Amino acid sequence: xxxxxxxxxxxxxxxxxxxxxxxxxxxxxxxxxxxxDMHYLLxxxxxxxxxxxxxxxxxxxxxRQILAVQGMACSAKDIERRKxxxxxxxxxxxxxxxxxxxxxxxxxxxxxxxxxxxxGLDGCYRDISxxxxxxxxxxxxxxxxxxxxxxxxxxxxxxxxxxxxxxxSNSGRLKTLCYETxxxxxxxxxxxxxxxxxxxxxxxxxxxxxSDAWVLNGCYEWFNLASFIINHVLDNSGIMNIIDHxxxxxxxxxxxxxxIAKGL
Length: 264
What we know:
Elements: H1 18-22, H2 25-43, H3 48-58, H4 63-72, H5 76-85, E1 96-100, H6 101-112, E2 117-119, E3 125-127, H7 141-155, E4 159-165, H8 171-185, E5 189-194, H9 197-202, E6 207-209, H10 213-218, E7 221-222, H11 225-233, E8 242-243, H12 246-263
């Protein structure tokens, strides 16, 4: 199985290789161990790229598994830094929120089309899709926009400003779809294309919604919108394509502490 072959799917659902890579219990356990090692080494200030390569080689991870571990892992310092700037759902009423457009939309498109999403140690959900310079609308796109719009309306946001990557092909079409959806549903949205959206999002004292690690580290404050949608809006009780190792991770660290204590 060559999991580095180009992805020729027309939707953002499961890659044919993903049932083996993420659906099997032994593979999920392997991801847990890799994630634990990655977190430990990052806490020791090992370089992220070298750490990822080391962990990937140790557990013989395939390319898509490495992407998943990369998205879930971060250091304790990063977790603390992000938590200090995170705002609760009841704190965004009456505020302006800037959405990291492709980031938020693609995560939810992936989930609703049956693709795997992964809960990071910082509480953010991430996918392993990529627009690769070109975005293609899928069947779930409009449903995602409506779901987001309704949720933000219920949360009482005053202004919703979408920011999309201008260099990405078809970003203009998605901007048009956002405005069409807003008009049909009665959402008050502003949609902009920017050549450097990550830098735009972290500028000034903006409240943003994103799961991009670089953006979260650099922003003024943020709301975990994708997590709110997944955990409080969608009925995910029967969804099997969410990889969440948070509880097992805590257990693993407890066992590690016990082992260290025994050696003292």
